[in-house]
Amino acid sequence: MRVAVFSTKPYDRRFLDEARGAHSLTYLEPRLSAATAPLAGDAEAVCAFVNDTLDESCLQGLAASGVRLVALRCAGFNNVDLEAARRLGIAVARVPAYSPHAVAEHTVALILTLNRHTHRAFNRVREGNFALEGLLGFDLHGKTVGVVGTGKIGQCVLAIMRGFGCRLLAHDPHPSAAAEALGARYVGKGELLAESDIVTLHCPLTPDTRHFIDAGAIAAMKPGVMLVNTSRGAVIDTRAVIAGLKDGRIGHLALDVYEEEDALFFLDHSADVIRDDVFARLLTFPNVLITGHQAFFTREALTAIAETTIANIDAFATTGQPLHPVPA
Ligand code: NAD
């Protein structure tokens, strides 16, 4: 098939080229939106990523030029108007699992870094400052970790945190026997928030989970809690979290995702003025650690993403159905 690949970075090209088979891939750097949809040209499929905006007007443009498949090279699909895609006869495929380990391991890297301040220690030592003041952490052993969303990634996080000797709580509308076998106890949202020393978010962004962590949830958390979000930015209300950081209710915050990340992430803004005052405020806190949506970024994950994306396109080309359509 002729496929227009949007939001292409050099690493996407490298891994997709290895997997492409007979398909003709055109690599485009711009993000996909209504404005850039015409760049798809005569493509029969587009390949898009997390911060592309596939709203109704974008999908209308794609449908009008003959696109019949959107192959997302990510798991989340909150950036696609699925109802409009259905009406327009465009199939939407995703990569449901590539490496849950990649995201879980990055989550734990954030927890360890934030707790033991290794990012600050690195800079201090390079400047000849060996003072320990300000680097105090806590033992993970014996602490309670609350995992919200115990799907593929949440279960990997549970398995790792179990290894640290943590007590495991879980919250999910669909409890999993595998998570329980790892030692997790399912509880309601209130109990998880009240009991957890670390709350880590691994649910998808849906109307139900938007601002799952809001001012009310923050008030219900243990004072000094560590909050970790590697799922989607809008699962937390960033302004409420900033208020929680200011009054000390939130003791540590680690983010790999941010509500308004599409204006910032995946691009080099090091020579620009950051215009997003909420994000800029987050950067001022010594107890906030932010990475730019890199939890998925391992060789194994990029290989799996490329191979599954091509498998979706293969299946659509031969049967009219992708291998992994987004859930209805
Ligand atoms: P998954 O579908 O395997 O698991 C998601 C779990 O969340 C399911 O068990 C589901 O029942 C649960 N859930 C749904 N609504 C919930 C709610 N209201 N409260 C609690 N739990 C709820 O998905 P996954 O592969 O584990 O991925 C989880 C999320 O991680 C994705 O949706 C995506 O947003 C995010 N993600 C981020 C990165 C990154 O690089 N930062 C990479 C991949 C995925």
What would your notes on this structure say?
There is one protein chain. This protein is of the alpha/beta class and 328 residues long. It is built from twelve helices and twelve strands. It has helices at 10-19, 56-64, 82-88, 100-116, 118-126, 152-163, 177-181, 189-195, 215-219, 238-246, 277-283, 299-319, and strands spanning 2-5, 24-27, 45-48, 69-72, 91-93, 144-148, 167-171, 185-186, 198-201, 225-229, 250-255, 288-290. The chain has a seven-stranded parallel β-sheet with strand order 8-7-6-9-10-11-12, with helices on both faces. Strands 2-1-3-4-5 form a five-stranded parallel β-sheet, with helices on both faces. The protein is globular, with a radius of gyration of 21 Å. The model has no long low-confidence stretch (mean pLDDT 97). Nicotinamide-adenine-dinucleotide binds at residues 75-76, 97, 100, 103, 148-154, 171-174, 202-206, 208-209, 230-232, 256-257, 293, 295-296.
In short:
The protein is of the alpha/beta class and 328 residues long. It is 36% helix and 15% strand.
Q: What's the total count of β strands?
A: 12
Q: What is the H/E order?
A: EHEEHEHEHHEHEHEHEHEHEHEH
How far apart, in Å, are the first and last alpha carbons?
25 Å
Q: Which cofactor or ligand species appear?
A: nicotinamide-adenine-dinucleotide
* Structure class: alpha/beta
Mean pLDDT: 97
Query: How many alpha or pi helices?
Result: 12
- Low-confidence segments: none
Estimate the helix proportion, in percent: 25-40%
* Largest sheet strand order: 8-7-6-9-10-11-12
CA radius of gyration: 21 Å
